[in-house]
Amino acid sequence: MEGEEKETQNQLPCSGQQAEDAAERQSKPKKELQFRLYRLLLEKYADIVNENEKRTIGEIKGLVNGDDLTIQSILTDFKNPGYEFQRDYLEAAGKMLQFVMKEIDYVDPELNLNYWFSPKEVFSAKIGDDEDLAVFLCSLLLGLGDENAAVVIAELNNLRTHAFVVTEFGGKFFILDPSQQHSFCDYSGSREESLQKYSFKKAKIKRFLYKFNHSAYEQFI
Fold first, then answer.
1. Would the pTM of this model clear 0.85, i.e. be above it?
2. In angstroms, what is the C-alpha Rg of the chain?
């Protein structure tokens, strides 16, 4: 009987290490478990999402929209009543960059999903990936009158892709990346100087892949 009792105890599903493992699983935060489930669902239906999120070149260009109501409502808080592009642009654009870096949280979803959020969706959720933030900032700069501002998708030397904004003003080339903290002039100078100065998480630019704004779309591959 004693041998049978020991054998029964050893077969109990929640004895010993199994009980500790079960307790550890139950102690995990609810949000962590929810995110794991959401990630699983997104990965399962990634093909459907990617198919529905396909955009034509015209639609991609249309993502940069200075007349968007959300963009215009933000600009009214930063543009002086007598705003003049040549005189006031650099100051206003610097404020726009700081605003996006402060108000919109950058996140790398690390999912095989292609999607585009509208300015309203980004501003309402206060979150976005690098492409969302770049499009958002580029739309604000266009709203300030900057026809040169464009979104760039670049390949970095760590073989990852990353999006940021480029523009030219007053004979200088600027790289603006709202996914990380920096000042408006940190990555400025000649085109070559700006490209040399820029890095994202210590990775340097290897090459541009795509560049677009409201009026043009360029592919470099």
1. no
2. 24
